[in-house]
Amino acid sequence: MCGITGYTGSARALPVIMEALHRLEYRGYDSAGVAVEGKDGFFLKKVKGKIDDLDAALDGVEIEGTTGIGHTRWATHGEPSQKNAHPHFSIDRNIMLVHNGIIENHDRLRDRLPEDIEFTSETDTEVLVHLLSENYDGDLTEAVRFTLGEVEGSFAVAVVHRDEPGRIVAARSGSPLIIGCGGEGNYVASDLPALLDFTNEVIFLDEDEIATIDSDSITVQTIDGEERKKSVNSISWDAVQAQKGGYKHFMLKEIAEQPQVLRQSMRGRLDSEAGIVKFPNLELDDSIFKRIEKINLIACGTSYHACMVARYWLEEMTDLHVEVDIGSEYRYRSLNYEADREMLVTVSQSGETADTLAALRKVSRLDVPVLSICNVLGSTMAREADDVLYTHAGPEIGVASTKSFTTQLLVLFLFSYYLGRLRGSFEGDRELLEALEQIPDQVDQQIRDREIYQKIAAEQFKKEDFLFLGRHLNYPVAMEGALKLKEISYIHAEGYPAGEMKHGPIALIDEEIPVVVLGPHSRVYNKMLSNIEEVKARGGIVLGVCMEDDKQGIAEMCDYLMPVPDTEELLTPFLTTPPMQILSYELAVRRGCDVDQPRNLAKSVTVE
Ligand code: AGP
Question: Domain boundaries in the chain?
Answer without folding.
Answer: 3-242, 244-447, 449-608
